[in-house]
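Structure ticket #2291
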Amino acid sequence: MYSKYSDEELIGLLKANQQKALSALYSRYWDKMLVVALNRLDNLEIAEECVQNVFLSLWKRRHALVLSNAVSTYLAVAVKYQVIKQMDKIYRRKLGDDFIYFLPSESPSADAYVLEKELLEKVAEAVERLPEKCRIVFLMSREDNMTNKQIASDLGVSEKTVEAHITKAIKSLRSDLAMIPPILIHLFL
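Resolution: structure written out below.
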């Protein structure tokens, strides 16, 4: 029954403490989020932990959750932040215990949540300003994790056209998001 609800309806049910709504979102997005995490981490266990952490956070923050973008966008960004945290942990381990005291705390602050929200809004606004075909191709590539070949087949265009749209989108977004540190832009593009 819950699988038939839209993402927005599921978020509303989630806010009303419906655990089955979380399960439906979990079923709907688990695979996509795992692919994103696994592509960056190359470790299945750590990638699964990242995705689990996102859903745990979603449940814990359900009452205060305000989404200005699509649920898929929110989850994609959240999993990318989890990947960054995991990469940071891996990096810290490589540095060794002697250097740990030089690094900042891992606990998320209120500033991190505000930054996340602002960053999501800026990225969404920049994506919305893209020309329609360019935006569609970019979202299929980044949010749906489709290959250029799949996108070309779905839209009935050549792979070169898909590549051109993605290149144009990335250039445009980098220009629009010039104020954001490059490492964060790389995570979205």
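Closing remark: DSSP finds nine helices and no strands in the chain.
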